[in-house]
Amino acid sequence: MKKIYLDHNATTPLRREVLAAMEEIYQNVTGNPSSVHFFGREARRRLEAGRKQVAETIGARPEEIVFTGGGTEADNLAVQGVAYASRSKGDHIITSAIEHPAVLAACRFLEKEGFSVTYLPVSREGLVSPSQLEEAIRPETILISVMTANNETGVIQPVAEIGEIARSRKVPFHTDAIQGLGKIPLSVEEMGVDLMSLSGHKVYGPQGVGALYIRKGIRVRPLTYGGHHERSKRPGTENLAGIVGFGEASRLARENLESEADRLRMLRDRLCSEISDRIPRVKMNGAPGLRLPNTLNLSFEYVEGEGILLGLEEKGVAAATGSACTSGELAPSHVLSAMEVEAALAQGSVRFSLGRENTLEDILYTVDVLVPVVKRLREMSPFYDPDNDTQGD
Ligand SMILES: Cc1ncc(COP(=O)(O)O)c(C=O)c1O
Question: What domain range includes position 344?
Answer without folding.
Answer: 256-388
